[in-house]
Amino acid sequence: MNECNPATEFANRAHAPSETDDSIEADLDRLRQSGQECADEEENEGNGLGSHWARKFASFRELKRVHALTEEDFADADSATMALAQATLGDETLSWDEVNVEMARLFEFESTPSVAHVLGFIEGASKVFEKV
Question: Model-level pTM greater than 0.85?
Fold first, then answer.
């Protein structure tokens, strides 16, 4: 039986002949492209969830507060998730436990959403708001 041992496989690669700057740059370009594709997928997923939430669950006031977030420039996932939870719940004094519960409700998955997820959600909800 031939099992893959990640530690051995990594060690074998670590002793591989040295790579050229061009091959390293090609690897980095591949990773950058992969990261962008991941962010695009997350933003699209968030967009769909935001649109669905806006059409099926949001009140006009909640939707207006979320739409106002389109003017914000979020530095990281924490500030984005906090702002979105405050907007959807209409409460500026939320604990992180409350934020996490709201993110689980909005995004329907257990992990903390990425900035791309949150920005997509805001965009999707805002598109609905602009049609109201």
Answer: no
